[in-house]
Amino acid sequence: YLALSYTWGGADESLKNSTYQSNIHQRLQPYGLRGILNPKVLPQVYQDALLVAKGLGYRYIWIDAFCIIQDNDTDIEAQITNMGYVYQNADMTIAAGGGAGSEVPLFVKRQVSARPCLVKATVNGQPRYVIVSRPMDDTTSVLDSRLWVFQEQILSRRTVQFGPHYTTWRCSKMNAIESLPLNVPEESIPTEEALQLDDSIKKLQVWIKDTASHRLTAQLDFTHEFASAWYSAVCNYTNRNWSNRKDQIGAVMGVASVIATRSGWRHLAGLWREDLPYGLAWFKCNQPYANREKGTGYTDDLEHEANCAPSWSWAARANGPVVFLPRAGFQSYLVEVGETDWEWPAPAQKGIANGRLTLKGQLLQAYVQPVPFNTVALQPNSEGKWKAQLVDSVPNPVLVGEVYLDAPMTSSSPETICCLLLGTLHKGYRYWGVGLALRIVEKDGRQYFERAGLVGLFNPVAGQTKIVDIY
């Protein structure tokens, strides 16, 4: 079978023809889909995808609007978890890169004068063919900026993408475009974003491909190679467009399920149990939204959404670029990971309790105060988006570190926080202590910790060993 990768756009036309509980029984009958296959009512991208499938001799194609019951939460959750296998097991994925929305055709009209062509030429006295083509456009495909397409790009074995300027081919062995239609090695293709996936995504693709030969019952050792690929891919993922904050975890569950099944590792809200001390060391980046589209109305939502992800997960704050500390310099884990009851999807009755994470480590008390001047505005860089100072006491404070906050401070007065040390970071000639900034929160008559940011201590400091629960 084939699979279709596309964007719903405004979704009105897609929803009109989608599968619901009211029509699922009718569609399961022989010829039950005949009514929606009428070109007069079927959105153009579906018509074109069916044309490709028939032309290639396939009887089956997977399209989410038809294959998922759109008003059945149980079916949606089951299919989201299974999404990785849908795209991984498809013979090929058809990618609609020409524009956003199901009414945008798969085959976009092009400027005739810019089409690639073969020209006979003589090179060193020998007859040759030269491929003449327009300069490769540097505009990324609309699919490269969409949250839900992330795992489709990673897991698809073969992808043919119909774009506004050319058709591209990707598989594990090679890439090809119309102006380079032969079996050209991937490294020989220019690196314009419109032609290639982000390098971090490719690394994760390679890792998944290389481990495909392992028996599913054999647990793999957690490797730095995989960790580097995963966290780099997360950085790419958090740059993408989303329409619902609750999709942050769901849109990555397909690829996470494939990796967890293959490796035996435990996935925890976008992180991995086997590498949790490092995985917790993420922070909001002060870089622009690299793949965000202009005028899409996305705002910098500062409120933590408990139903989206626990506060210790990057997905709770992934309304903008999230990055991790340098892997090579992170060492000396200082925290023990205990129990967690995170589940996906979250049972409705658990509410804020879903995602409790128990850690045992050195807990320090300190104070956060605003930076005297706005360093973020002076020079945008890879540092934390909301940077603050860490001091040891109030009054007469002594600067002991800095904090990359998950949200800006709401007061100019110092705030009491707790620092749970995760490890040390070798940066230049110095060692930094790295930890979580935790805030004590009361809810329903009890106290618990909530993440407030990432702490960098100028010198690792010993604290009192405690067991803390973070939600």
Automatic annotation (TrEMBL):
Domain of life: Eukaryota
Heterokaryon incompatibility domain: residues covered: 1-152
Pfam families membership: HET
InterPro entries linked to this entry: HET
Descriptive protein name: Heterokaryon incompatibility protein-domain-containing protein
